[in-house]
Amino acid sequence: MDKILEGKVGLITGAGSGFGREIAITFAREGANLVLNDIDLESLEETRDIILKSYDCEILLYQMDISDADKVKEMSKEVFKKFDNVFVLVNNAGINGGLYKSLVCPIENYDRVMNVNLKGPWLLVKNLFRKMRLQKFAPVTGKIINIASCAGIEPNPAIGMYSVSKAALIYFTKLWALELAPRITVNSISPGVHITKIYGNDPELAQRFLDMRGVKIPLNRFGTKADVANACLFLASPASDYITGENIVIDGGMTTSINKL
Ligand SMILES: NC(=O)c1ccc[n+]([C@@H]2O[C@H](COP(=O)([O-])OP(=O)(O)OC[C@H]3O[C@@H](n4cnc5c(N)ncnc54)[C@H](O)[C@@H]3O)[C@@H](O)[C@H]2O)c1
Predict the structure, then answer these.
(1) Which of 133, 134, 198, 241 is the most buried (most CB within 10 A)?
(2) Which residues contact 148 (CB under 8 A, 6 or more apart)?
């Protein structure tokens, strides 16, 4: 059976750990070649080595801060020197920016969270959409997946600026879906609470975070990295070709249950 992403290239930001690494492994398993970005080169090399142990694919590593406009422009040119397409762009890199309510958040934190979580994805799309629109694939020539957050749906005061940055990313998703139709689809995924580096890889810390807000997860477990990577694979596959401008919530029912359990 043909693999879902054979002949296609996936560009994933923040691929040095967490969801980004898992998405990269999942795409490689389905035959994709990869452009992997992270701000941290060592973790990126680790992701590459893990993939090449199991899968035969071509990988371009690109260390950069996604909020650096010159670097993103440079990378967007480099990618097309090595590959003839970027079929899937996954805007995954993100930071929580510290535990601040929005009105006491230091200005530097505001700038950093907005630059990484919002300006970064905007720069990537801005630099890649023209080429993605002209690619050989049909009916969809390219796909964009933004990793947002449940915090972007219902405001979370404990991480106020993060909430705002992710709400705006969900809004960008809808806006770009309209701007880039009919050739490129744009969707977002909003994870709930998944144990990754963002929670110090610590389930107890994640549980304290839930308890602090009196929030429960109806499916009674934290999310896994695979829960998110599998949804990315669906959005990267032809099975989702008629879906654009949507935000898929993957949180075990957490957002639905807020104020109800
Ligand atoms: N883990 C969760 O429960 C959860 C929930 C909702 C949303 N998210 C979102 O999922 C995405 C991935 O998070 P994760 O949980 O895998 O965290 P993570 O910290 O394990 O991974 C994030 C990766 O992004 C990289 N990165 C950070 N700033 C960067 C920059 N400026 N340029 C390039 N790379 C950069 C980091 O080095 C890291 O490898 C983020 O956007 C996060 O906001 C996570």
Answers:
(1) 198
(2) 166, 169, 170, 173, 188, 189, 190, 247
19, 21, 45, best to mutate for ligand 1 pocket (most atoms within 8 Å of CB): 19
Tokens 């492994």 identify what position?
A: 25
Q: What is the DSSP letter of 151?
A: G
Four-residue CA torsion sign, 204, 153, 97, 78: positive
Prior bond to 121 cis, omega within 30?
Answer: no
Asked if omega into 203 is within 30° of 0 (cis), the reply is no
- Cβ neighbours of residue 41 closer than 8 Å, sequence gap 6 or more: 61, 63
At a CB cut-off of 8 Å and minimum separation 6, what does 59 contact?
A: 33, 34, 35, 36, 48, 51, 52
Query: Is the C-beta atom of 66 inside 6 A of ligand 1?
Result: yes
Does residue 197 surpass a pLDDT of 70? yes
46 lines ligand 1 (CB under 6 A): no
What's the whole-number mean pLDDT along residues 193-209?
Answer: 90
Per-residue confidence at 209, pLDDT binned at 50, 70, 90? Answer: confident
| CATH number assigned to the domain covering 9-257 | 3.40.50.720
3-state SS, residue 24 = helix
Where are the chain's structural domains? 9-257
User: Is 147 a pocket residue for ligand 1 (Cβ < 6 Å)?
Assistant: yes
The structure tokens listed for 68 are 């650096």
Q: How far apart are CA 102 and CA 164, in angstroms?
A: 9
DSSP 203: H
For position 228, what pLDDT does the model report? 98
Mean pLDDT over the full length of the chain = 96
Give the distance from CA 54 to its chain's centroid. 23
